[in-house]
Specification:
- By secondary structure, the chain is an alpha/beta fold.
- It has one domain: TIM Barrel.
- Helix content is about 40%, strand content about 15%.
- It has helices at about 10-15, 35-45, 55-60, 65-75, 100-115, 135-150, 150-155, 170-180, 205-210, 245-255, 290-300, 315-335; strands spanning about 20-25, 50, 80-85, 120-125, 160-165, 185-190, 215-220, 220-225, 230-235, 260-265, 270-275.
- The strands form 2 sheets. Strands 7-6-5-4-3-2-1-10 form an 8-stranded parallel beta sheet.
- The mean pLDDT is about 95.
């Protein structure tokens, strides 16, 4: 039976109406706005959540500044989520100049309490962490240990840590392993719909595996097609891809009730996954054949995707246009016009 098949239409319409729409400010990174300008922009687009996925977007972790951001968001009727980058001390993405992983995450937990965010979004790293000094299981263990070391503070302040499946770092099974090892009582998932494809994974499979752990999300569409080396993946505006993003969003809403659906619009051209080369498979040696077959099914249905290249200096305008197009499509999926 399809997801939602037994749910009355009126009940589903009510469920969609109650969905909290959000914008991840990474979508607007070229704007270089203050957090207050970003809040105004998001409020004008009638969303309910503003996701400050990195510290640079919120500007400062000073308590007085955070209190001003909280007050502004409250006045606009917006909820705030905050985030950071890598908390894995052995990831190539981790920045030790900012202190230990525990110190950095601890500061973010304090900041979340002040600004009124129920979560801190964080990442392990990127696809580079699947190769030397891999394997990824070692990085998962290192990240889980950091999380365990801050558990008492997170529990005391009632803040949860949402780990994203990020930039090709973890497949769904692996992120589930991380959450279970660290502790489901304070660790969950920031579910990204675009990143699974960088790990040769069907986003619908990622949702099927991780939905019990979801705390928040990043949503965007993707186009996937076959190329001589293997497959190509590019992120596109909502409705332009071939991963059934409409079905994904509807299933997410049903499986993750009350969790934000936050757009993360990223447009920068295709990434080739050369899976016909033997060396490609070393970081993915534990991928079950049936999972890869689901990815191949998507690629086989796809056609080469081309888009007008972004001119240098025009990124800010194109960002806004891409986000507005995607937000309009998302609202149509949910019956909001």
């Amino acid at each position: 039976m399809a997801i939602g098949a037994a749910i009355p239409a009126a009940a589903m319409a009510d469920t969609y109406e109650k969905v909290k729409l959000g914008i991840d400010l990474f979508s607007l990174r070229a704007q270089k706005w203050t957090p207050f300008e970003a809040l105004d922009y998001c409020a004008a687009r009638q969303v309910q959540v503003v996701h400050f996925s990195e510290i640079r977007f919120i500007g400062s972790l000073e308590p007085e500044h955070l209190r001003k951001v909280r007050a502004k968001a409250s006045a606009l009727g917006l909820e705030v989520e905050i985030g950071m980058r890598s908390i894995c001390p052995t990831s190539k993405m981790f920045d030790p100049k900012e202190g230990t992983a525990e110190e950095q995450l601890g500061r973010m937990i304090d900041a979340a309490e002040v600004v009124g965010s129920p979560i801190v979004r964080a990442v392990l790293g990127s696809g580079e962490d699947r190769v030397k000094p891999g394997p990824i299981e070692a990085r998962i263990h290192d990240t889980a240990q950091v999380l365990k070391n801050v558990r008492a503070k997170a529990i005391d302040k009632n803040i949860k840590v949402a780990i994203e499946n990020h930039a090709g770092d973890m497949q769904a099974r692996e992120l589930k392993m991380l959450v279970e090892e660290a502790g489901r009582d304070f660790v969950g998932v920031c579910l990204d719909s675009g990143n699974p494809l960088w790990t040769i994974e069907d986003p619908h499979l990622t949702l099927d595996v991780l939905h019990p752990y979801v705390l928040t999300s990043h949503v965007r569409d993707s186009a996937v097609w076959r190329v001589p080396q293997g497959a190509a993946v590019t992120w596109v505006e909502m409705g332009r891809g071939n991963v059934d993003i409409d079905g994904y969003v509807k299933k997410y809403v049903e499986l993750c009730p009350g969790k934000a659906v936050s757009l993360e619009s990223i447009i920068f051209g295709p990434r080739v996954l050369p899976f016909k080369e033997a060396k490609f498979w070393e970081p993915f040696r534990n991928t079950p054949a049936w999972e890869f077959e689901r990815f191949l099914d998507i690629a086989d249905r796809g056609k080469p995707y081309t888009d007008e290249p972004w001119e240098k200096g025009d990124e800010a305008r194109r960002e806004r246009e891409a986000l507005d197009e995607s937000l309009g499509h998302l609202k149509r999926i949910l019956g909001r016009g």
